[in-house]
Amino acid sequence: MPRLAVIAGLGALGVLGMPLLHPHPSGSTDRVTPGAVRVESESTVSVTLIDDRARLQRFEREYEVELATGSGFTVTPDGVIVTATQVVRSDKDLQVYAANRVFAEYFKVDVPADFDRHTVDDPDLNIRLQACYPPRTQNSTCNATVETKVTAFPYLDPALPEGLAAEVLSAGDTPSAPAVLKVNAGPKNNLPTVPMGTTIGAEVESVDVMTLATRPSAKAPPKMDTAHFDPPGSRNFKAAERDKIDKLIEAGAIGAAVIDDRKSEVVGVLSGGGSLPATVTPVDEIRTALVAAGVTPRRGPVDVVYEQALAAYHNKLYANAAPVLQQVLTLRQDHAVALDYLRVSKAKANTAEDAAKKKPSPVAVPAPSPGVASWIWITGGVVLVGAVMAGSVPFLLRRRRNGVDQQDTSGENHALVTSWPAQTEVYRTPNPGQPVMDISPAGGQPHVSNPGSNPGGTSKKFCTQCGMRLGHAHRFCGFCGHPSDAP
User: Fold this and answer.
1) Which SS3 state, helix, strand or coil, does residue 31 take?
2) What angle do CA 135, 130, 96 make, to 5 degrees?
3) Assuming Cys at both sites, which of 257, 344, 463, 471 could form a disulfide with 477, CB separation 3.0 to 4.6 Å?
4) Domain membership of residue 411 as a residue range
5) What is the bridge-based pairing of β-strands 164-170 and 265-273?
């Protein structure tokens, strides 16, 4: 278990630098394809014919009969596979086939090598032929035994030419029922698996059928065909698509995974063909069959890391996908899809096709909210500037007055001289009784006078506290409230 955590953690490290993008885009059936399996079953019939006409003779033969071929999918990393019962258990009677073959070969009569019961013209031979067919009785002239062999071919690269011998853990009573197989997955027990859904919901309409018409390889990957349920969730295909489904079944889609295109999960298994209608066995029945066989579907470390690689690959972040795909191959070096995607990622990494190398689009600056008019923002700014200026003027004047006070106290200066254009103003000194300097118009000379020595003239008075102009005969400053020192 610690090893599992480390492996999954290593895979996660490969995507830490990626943007948080959708891990697996809608309709991405390559979540499922690594778990595709081709299933082939054949039987060996051993038959003994007994001829007691002249002397007792035994004629023994062995025949190999191909039962069925189809598709399937892996549901656990240690090699549990699901397909349709009709792929591993034929409804044809192999003992009848063996009787026809051995009788025709021994007695040199024309009996077709098929699964039907026949008659011959010779009455004595016909009695013996009918006694050769099952069931076996005391008068039977033939004795046959059947041994069925099932082989699974996972989608790997390089392909397994001999496949993997599969044991049938359970099979259903009908051809469409799920059959549960088990193969030896090797010491690592890390075959790729498929993600399984829980039910066919009412919203499931678009599906994909995953078919392996031949033994899989890099040149013969699973084939995906889209179909639609009508109505959604009904498991009935649209009338216009039924011919297509029948052709898929004939081409090897018996036992194929039916995939919900929206979630990329297996939601059923396909069966049918011949006299049997196309049938989708839902995923809840598959899960029931697995429980009856003592199996719980699960995914392995190779699946976890592989899906992390898909997140980067599908978003064209090839430089980021390559090391994670390499980690998949460290866990399973013959993972067919990871090998293919790694080749693509290495070829496109750090090129113009790599989304990580493209310049990001400029971000548009949002316009001001339409709920607040622009003139309100402008007016507010003007008011704010005015408030700052109004508050700073008294402060600056107070600092200037304090400077004059310090000069008067030291005895160095007793008057403040300021140039105001084209007018004469009288500034009163902060201390009553001190001389005041008149500032004459341009060209005139300033002179010192005493307070009240300006008979007949008018003077402007200023507050000794804040420096603002005093109104005529005001006893208090209208700005700061300080008492006026005017007589």
Assistant:
1) helix
2) 55
3) 463
4) 374-470
5) unpaired
Count of C-beta atoms within a 10 Å radius of residue 55? 6
Where do we find the tokens 């295909």?
Answer: 237
Residue 181 is assigned to a structural domain of this protein: yes
Sequence-separated (6 or more) residues with CB below 8 Å from residue 261 = 26, 27, 29, 206, 207, 208, 226
DSSP state of 307: H
pLDDT tens for 380-403 read 555 555 655 655 555 555 555 554
Confidence band (pLDDT; 50, 70, 90) for 186?
Answer: confident
* Percent of the chain topping pLDDT 90: 63
CB 223 within 8 A of CB 172: no
Q: Same domain, yes or no, for 199 and 94?
A: yes
Would you say 125 and 107 are in contact if contact means Cβ atoms under 8 Å apart?
yes
Beta bridge pairs of residue 483: 476
Indicate the number of domains in the chain. Answer: 2
CA atoms of 29 and 264, how far apart (whole Å): 6
Q: The tokens 């656990």 sit on which residue?
A: 76
Report yes or no: 325 and 312 within 8 Å, Cβ to Cβ: no
CATH number of the domain within which 218 lies: 2.40.10.120
- Assigned domain for 325 exists: no
Contact (Cβ atoms closer than 8 angstroms) between residue 451 and residue 432: yes
Task: Write the secondary structure of the chain as one string of H (helix), E (strand) and C (coil).
Answer: CHHHHHHHHHHHHCCCCCCCCCCCCCCCHHHCHHHEEEEEEEEEEEEEEEECCCCCEEEEEEEEEEEEEEEEEEEECCCEEEEEHHHHCCCCCHHHHHHHHHHHHHHCCCCCCCCCCCCCCCHHHHHHHHHHCCCCCCCCCEEEEEEEEEEEEECECCCCCCCEEEEEEECCCCCCCEEEEEECCCCCCCCCCCCECCCCCCCCCEEEEEECCCCCECCECCEEEEEEECCCCCCCECHHHHHHHHHHHHHHHCCCEEEECCCCEEEEEEEEECCEEEEEEEHHHHHHHHHHCCCCCCCCHHHHHHHHHHHHHHCCCHHHHHHHHHHHHHHCCCEHHHHHHHHHHHHHCCCCCCHHHCCCCCCCCCCCCCCCCHHHHHHHHHHHHHHHHHHHHHHHHHHHHHHHHHHHHHCCCCCCCCCCCCCCEECCCCCCCCCEEEECCCCCCCEEECCCCCCCCCCCEECCCCCCEECCCCCECCCCCCECCCC
Residue 450, Cβ neighbours under 10 Å: how many? 10
Please indicate, yes or no, whether the overall pTM of this predicted structure exceeds 0.70: no
pLDDT, average across residues 37-65: 94
